[in-house]
């Protein structure tokens, strides 16, 4: 009860002050199989009346609107299921979305929710098919695709409570004018990249623990110093594990942003946009990644270097981790909370965002199908998902990090400051409009095979089969060819 009162007070403050900052990416949440039939909220009746009374008792307005909202997609709803899940390794139990439906029924007793979760397998094609069918009002993790997602600019302008509550949106470029970035949905949970540091390994090598003010140079020095034979345990250790090699474009995003390497000059037409990739600065980014590769395990490229991660046999001084809440749970279940800590990635070196962490943020987002006839009602569900205090507590209970920046304070109730501080810093300092899918540093949407080309070239770079100059030249040629094909 005390937590809820604290959160409600914080959220009330959020509605009275201007929002400060925003950003976006993808989530690593693992979904459970979709149920055979969509979950349906209880219709109005005795239970709805009871919920209505409870809501009124909390001085909250109960809506008289009626109707049905149909939603479809992957993400958290599929991961926890209707009735919740228990992790067999960590023993952590997460409540199902039936609790969210129950809360909705208290506020909207005459609006039925039909939720149809799906797994991540082929989710993009499934979402596109669902959108084309016209059968759904809301797309869960619609990923801000402008082809079928509603531009929420006007709703956000009219509803400052939502605008001020969030720092992060699934921004995408407006296909009719590529110089414009629009919010085609709302993020409801976030997944920031942090650096997991093994304090024991650093201590054994006599390396001072960094703090959140550290630089890219500091990271390289620590990685180099902690690669070799541990002078205390005699075990082989490695300085760093970057984001897995199969997602190596994320490593480029992090360091490209850290070095303020702007590569895009957007024009209204995509075909007239300039991509400046084959430059000395981009080569510097790849040189830095290649240097870190020297201090990685030989198993890194095969994705096997994390086999002993977060156990007594842990042998990596630093890990760039994405699924941070699950990482914390794994550490806690192993009884190793004192051994590890989280830090934001190093500070951006120069440019307008100098001094802000270069950590990226993934998200789970939700959008309104652009042709639904229930846009206003769908917006009310989106607002409910990101502002209702009980929903924010439910998100925390599902081991998620709410996108509502004030609700991030609830993390301190479930994990120590050595872990929560890094998460909240990344989220609260993400610059306005930053989004890895729509930024001047990186864009994953519009440039053909650009993203997969970075993964391929990164592999060759770390294997020693290509130089940074060859990497940037190859990728520049592919992007130029793609843009020419648009004319």
TrEMBL record:
<keyword id="KW-0732">Signal</keyword>
<dbReference type="InterPro" id="IPR050490">
    <property type="entry name" value="Bact_solute-bd_prot1"/>
</dbReference>
<feature type="region of interest" description="Disordered">
    <location>
        <begin position="24"/>
        <end position="65"/>
    </location>
</feature>
<keyword id="KW-0449">Lipoprotein</keyword>
<keyword id="KW-0564">Palmitate</keyword>
<feature type="compositionally biased region" description="Low complexity">
    <location>
        <begin position="31"/>
        <end position="55"/>
    </location>
</feature>
<keyword id="KW-0472">Membrane</keyword>
<dbReference type="InterPro" id="IPR006059">
    <property type="entry name" value="SBP"/>
</dbReference>
<protein>
    <submittedName>
        <fullName>Bacterial extracellular solute-binding protein</fullName>
    </submittedName>
</protein>
<feature type="signal peptide">
    <location>
        <begin position="1"/>
        <end position="22"/>
    </location>
</feature>
<keyword id="KW-1003">Cell membrane</keyword>
<dbReference type="Pfam" id="PF01547">
    <property type="entry name" value="SBP_bac_1"/>
</dbReference>
């Amino acid at each position: 009860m005390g937590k809820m009162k604290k959160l409600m007070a914080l959220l009330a403050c959020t509605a009275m002050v201007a929002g400060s900052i925003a950003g976006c990416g993808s989530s690593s949440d693992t979904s459970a199989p979709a149920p055979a039939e969509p979950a349906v909220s209880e219709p109005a009746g005795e239970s709805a009346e009871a919920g209505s009374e409870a809501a009124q008792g909390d001085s909250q307005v109960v809506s008289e609107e009626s109707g049905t909202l149909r939603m479809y997609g992957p993400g958290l709803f599929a991961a926890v299921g209707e009735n919740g899940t228990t992790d067999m390794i960590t023993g952590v139990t997460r409540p199902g979305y039936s609790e969210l439906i129950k809360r909705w029924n208290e506020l909207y007793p005459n609006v039925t929710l039909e939720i149809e979760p799906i797994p991540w397998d082929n989710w993009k094609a499934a979402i596109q098919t669902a959108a084309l069918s016209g059968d759904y009002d809301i797309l869960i993790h619609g990923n801000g695709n402008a082809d079928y997602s509603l531009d929420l600019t006007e709703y956000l302008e009219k509803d400052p409570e939502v605008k001020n509550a969030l720092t992060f949106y699934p921004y995408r470029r407006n296909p009719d004018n590529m110089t414009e970035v629009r919010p085609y949905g709302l993020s409801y949970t976030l997944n920031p990249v942090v650096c997991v540091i093994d304090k024991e390994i650093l201590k054994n090598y006599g390396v001072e623990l960094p703090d959140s003010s550290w630089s890219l140079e500091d990271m390289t020095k620590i990685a180099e110093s902690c690669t070799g034979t541990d002078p205390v345990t005699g075990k082989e250790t490695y300085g760093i594990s970057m984001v897995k090699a199969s997602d190596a474009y994320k490593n480029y995003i992090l360091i490209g942003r850290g070095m303020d390497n702007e590569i895009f000059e957007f024009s209204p037409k995509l075909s007239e946009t300039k991509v400046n990739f084959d430059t000395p600065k981009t080569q510097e980014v790849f040189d830095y990644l290649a240097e870190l590769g020297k201090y990685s395990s030989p198993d890194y490229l095969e994705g096997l270097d994390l086999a002993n991660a977060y156990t007594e046999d842990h042998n990596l001084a630093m890990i760039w981790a994405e699924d941070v809440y699950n990482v914390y749970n794994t550490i806690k279940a192993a009884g190793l909370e004192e051994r590890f800590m989280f830090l934001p990635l190093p500070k951006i070196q120069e440019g307008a965002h100098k001094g802000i962490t270069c950590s990226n943020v993934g998200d789970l987002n939700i959008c309104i199908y652009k042709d639904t006839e229930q846009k206003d009602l769908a917006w009310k569900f989106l607002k409910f998902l990101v502002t209702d205090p009980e929903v924010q507590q439910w998100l925390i209970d599902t081991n998620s990090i709410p996108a509502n920046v004030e609700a991030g304070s609830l993390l301190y109730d479930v994990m120590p400051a050595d872990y929560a501080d890094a998460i909240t810093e990344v989220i609260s300092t993400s610059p306005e409009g930053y989004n890895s899918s729509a930024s001047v540093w990186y864009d994953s949407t519009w440039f053909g095979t650009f993203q997969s080309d970075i993964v391929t070239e990164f592999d060759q770079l770390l294997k020693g089969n290509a130089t940074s100059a060859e990497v940037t030249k190859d990728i520049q040629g592919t992007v130029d060819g793609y843009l020419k094909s648009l004319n």
